[in-house]
Amino acid sequence: MKQYLCIFGLAVLLTGLFTTCKPDTLTALQDNEVAVMDKYVKDHNLADFKDASGIYFKDSIKGTGDTIKSGYLVKIYYKITLINGTVIFTSADKYGHNYEEHDFFVDVSNTVVNQSYIQQIAGLHKGMKKMQVGGIAFMVIPSQLAFKAVDNTAAMGVPRFSTLLATIYAKKAYTPEQQKEQQQQ
Question: Rounded mean pLDDT of 167-176?
Fold first, then answer.
């Protein structure tokens, strides 16, 4: 009986050693994301455009309107891709035409707003507050400010630890006061 216990104990010990030496899959995925994003940033000369929040933000066309703030309703056209170029969200039709603006509520959270997947991307909220109305901006959004370690491959085509690339055109914006006025009309 003692022999069986010794063999069993040795097996448990060896199993413990073996499993602690294996790299964590999620850590490996996150490390890979960081390496791919760093290469993208370096290859596209974006290192100087890193924001304190962790996104890379670059105005393609500087807007001339108000600076967007929390609570604004912004009418946008957008294209959001994975870092490999796969389009996951866009306001354009299959021919690339943008006919209708998408409503984006900056730093607003409620049941209706949160049903939109792009509203759930924290990095977009941070980037939008750096834009002016009428501007077009490009953002590199790390997964920690997007969908993190959640595997959304089936629902939206976004795997775990996916860096997102977003091009946003802020066509119009409405302050909270202007939104209330519109609702009263």
Answer: 96
